Amino acid sequence: MTDERGAGGGIGGPEETGGTGGTGRAGGGGGATAAGRWPVSRKTLLKAALVAVPVPALLGGGAALARDHRPSDAPLEPTPFCDDGDDPTPPQTEGPYFKPNSPERASLLEPGTRGTRLTVSGFVFGLTCQPVAQALMDFWQADDAGAYDNRGFRMRGHQYTDARGAFTLTTIVPGLYPGRTRHIHVKVQAPGGRVLTTQLYFPGEPRNNTDPIFNAALLMNVRQAGPAKQATFDFVITSGRRGR
Ligand SMILES: [Fe+2]
């Protein structure tokens, strides 16, 4: 069914263009992001989290999650934008493979879907760590062979966060394609808010070191769970309720 505020409506809205034009890419050294505005960087949080809470099951270490933030701490750092390096036209921040009107579904698995099963779960927060309920999250990714479905909607779907700001995506580990490291695309939009277009990355990927738009602030925490993988990531958006 078509959703009135779905991927076609909400996610077709005005882009939060912090990273357009090729100059604001949130990659490489991560320099041109909002990171420098906050006294506590995500890297600092990462170090603190690793010292305080050992997480031996994580693959490739772990990143601090916004859910661990305390109200007395400095404001949260917004999740960086991430342009798509394979985009031939930089102003189209979502890259060449975004399609509006994706189906509403939390699982991208279909009969016959090949690849390593993966869940990505987490929360969407505002800058002061308030949960953002009913945030629209539109995911799209390559299949196990590194291909996007540009005719249909394989490996595409949107969902909404629950009252706690929580989401879970059920999918597969995306395949690699030339020029990019492994990644999942996502657009996040609070009700009535602006659209955050970004990408999620996997720790321990060799191409993380060579992909010019890779950003360590967008690394998920990933655990092996039998034959499957479980990833977590918390988004921090500037356009939640209360006018943020
Ligand atoms: Fe991509």
Q: What would a concise description of this structure say?
A:
The chain has 244 residues and is mainly beta.
List the helices and strands and how they pair.
Layout: H1 42-52, E1 117-125, E2 136-140, E3 156-160, E4 166-172, E5 183-189, E6 195-201, E7 221-225, E8 228-232, E9 235-236
Parallel strand pairs: 1-8, 1-9
Antiparallel strand pairs: 1-4, 2-3, 2-5, 5-6, 7-8
The protein binds fe (ii) ion (FE2).
Features:
mainly beta; 244 residues; 5-stranded mixed β-sheet; globular; Protocatechuate 3,4-Dioxygenase, subunit A; 5% helix; disordered N terminus; binds fe (ii) ion; single chain; 4-stranded antiparallel β-sheet
What is the CATH superfamily? Answer: Aromatic compound dioxygenase
Beta-strand percent range: 15-25%
Oligomer: single chain
Note the gap between the termini: 30 Å
Contiguous low-pLDDT stretches (5 residues minimum) are 1-10, 12-56, 85-93
- The CATH topology turns out to be Protocatechuate 3,4-Dioxygenase, subunit A
Q: At the first level of CATH, what is the class?
A: Mainly Beta
Shape call = globular
Q: Provide the succession of SSEs.
A: HEEEEEEEEE
Q: Based on the structure given, which CATH architecture is correct? A: Sandwich
Written description of the protein model:
The protein has about 240 residues and is mainly beta. The protein has one domain (about 20-25, about 60-235): Aromatic compound dioxygenase (Protocatechuate 3,4-Dioxygenase, subunit A, Sandwich), CATH 2.60.130. Helices cover about 5% and strands about 20% of the residues. Strands 1, 4, 7, 8 and 9 form a five-stranded mixed β-sheet that branches. The longest helix has 11 residues, at about 40-50. The radius of gyration is 17 Å and the shape is globular. The chain binds fe (ii) ion (FE2). Fe (ii) ion binds near residues 97, 180, 183 and 185. Fe (ii) ion binds near residues 95, 97, 180 and 185. This is Dioxygenase.
